[in-house]
Amino acid sequence: MGNQELHRGLDGIAVAETRLSTIDGEAGELSIGGYPVAELAKNAIYEESVFLLFNNRLPTKSELESFCTELAGYRSISTEVRQVLRQAARENADPMDALRMGVAAANLGVDVTEPTELAKRLVSVIPTIVTTYWRYRSGKEPVDPRDDLGHTANYLYMLSGEEPDPAAVRGLETYLNTVVDHGLNASTFVARSITSSDSDLVSAVTGAVGSLKGSLHGGAPGPVLEMLLTADDSGDPEGYVQEKLDSGERLMGFGHRVYQTRDPRAEVLSHAAERFYSGSDDRAFFEFVEEFEETAVNRLADHRPDRNLETNVEFYTAVLLHGVDIPQELFTTTFAMSRVGGWTAHCLEQLADNKIIRPLSIYTGDRDRSWTPVDSR
Ligand code: ACO
Predict the structure, then answer these.
(1) Which residues form the active site (predicted)?
(2) Ligand 1 contact via 53 beta carbon (within 6 Å)
(3) Is 255 close to ligand 1, i.e. is its CB under 6 Å away?
(4) Are the C-beta atoms of residues 68 and 150 closer than 8 Å to each other?
(5) Which of 250, 302, 306, 311 to mutate to test the pocket of ligand 1 (most atoms within 8 A of CB)?
(6) Rounded to the nearest 5°, which phi and psi values hold at 23?
(7) Which of 84, 200, 270, 343 could bridge 191 with an S-S bond, Cβ 3.0-4.6 Å?
(8) CA 256 to ligand 1 center in whole angstroms
(9) Hey, whose CA ends up nearest to atom 8 of ligand 1?
(10) Cα dist. 318→131, 210, 225, 300, 376 in Å?
């Protein structure tokens, strides 16, 4: 035990086998369920991506129809959960905290314990929790889910109360497919760790939501949007970027621990955003974004020639979610709404071949102390 090597943050350590997704950081490639992310993202509906992760194959037409029906049947939340969300909204809780509270109660009033069924419940209920909370927080009554709408369209419908625009549904669907799974990231590791003690999926996803909330994980797209809007308003994006770098700040939406290239998800989402904005009134904003990206990548290359600081997924996440009218405050909860497909698939994979995750720590405290009675300290 004395010669244990320390791997801070488990860097470079493999602790699980998975068939769900794989990343090649050098080549800038991501494959989900065996499909290049670009192919899955543009063709699948979200339910198809989740079926692929759960079953290791794409569904037939009739399997997809029944899977969509099953998921739609799990969307409702109880009056008690609504009350919790209303109270969270009164207290102006962070949307990720409200989501954590709602997810923790996801099996309240729902008689489901079988892991695969719980996985479906968790995937289905997150949009209802997020939109119920958000409508309360905006001073509106929640909108009940509609089981004649697909997962993505229903989310937009519950958010606005209006029939969603098909272009917005397709844009959001592409986003949800793109980020549904990404190797053993921090929140997925948390979900697998909780599952590995033979706990349940509601506990695992509640923990994963807590992990995703952190600014080093799911919190970047909000600041990206703020940066873009401020740079656009400044009228001098080049000067804005230079000033940030000169003052030692990081440019949000650039750089990645794993990818040495432009993040393949940024590639997919930039095309999706381009398609969306070309049919919208905000085409000028997208043109600005493209110019900003080019300026930022060039300035970062001058600033840090020793590193490949390229565009990451969060840059175009912000642009696309803003375009389809997701409030900035809900960017991270919308990320959770996608990633729950990956979290639950990892939980099921862990259960199928479980060994409790129990790493070591290296003790750095004192040894051989002798007890001093409280009155003598
Ligand atoms: N802008 C300016 N400088 C940067 C940036 C950036 N976006 N990214 C890294 N650097 C610099 C750092 O300041 C650091 O400089 P130093 O060596 O003088 O201290 C050096 O490059 C290395 O930075 P690390 O944080 O050690 O590199 P790492 O590869 O671990 O960082 C990270 C990856 C955290 C994403 C980083 O690039 C970053 O902070 N980017 C901005 C925030 C962001 O976009 N986050 C979302 C990431 S995508 C995702 O997680 C899903």
Answers:
(1) 256, 314
(2) no
(3) yes
(4) yes
(5) 250
(6) -120, 135
(7) 343
(8) 6
(9) 255
(10) 19, 21, 6, 20, 59
| Reported pTM | 0.95
From first to last of its 377 residues, the chain has per-residue pLDDT tens of 556 899 998 988 999 999 999 999 999 999 999 999 999 999 999 999 999 999 999 999 999 999 999 999 999 999 999 999 999 999 999 999 999 999 999 998 888 999 999 999 999 999 999 999 999 999 999 999 999 999 999 999 999 999 999 999 999 999 999 999 999 999 999 999 999 999 999 999 999 999 999 988 888 889 999 999 999 999 899 999 999 999 999 999 999 988 989 999 999 999 999 999 999 989 999 999 999 999 999 999 999 999 999 999 999 999 999 999 999 999 999 999 999 999 999 999 999 999 999 999 999 999 999 999 999 99
- Residue labelled with tokens 């969509």: 68
CA 214–ligand 1 middle distance (angstroms)? 15
In order of start, what are the domains of the chain with their CATH numbers?
A: 32-164+172-208+338-352 (1.10.580.10), 221-323 (1.10.230.10)
Ligand 1 test: best mutation among 184, 189, 257, 338, most atoms within 8 Å of CB?
Answer: 257
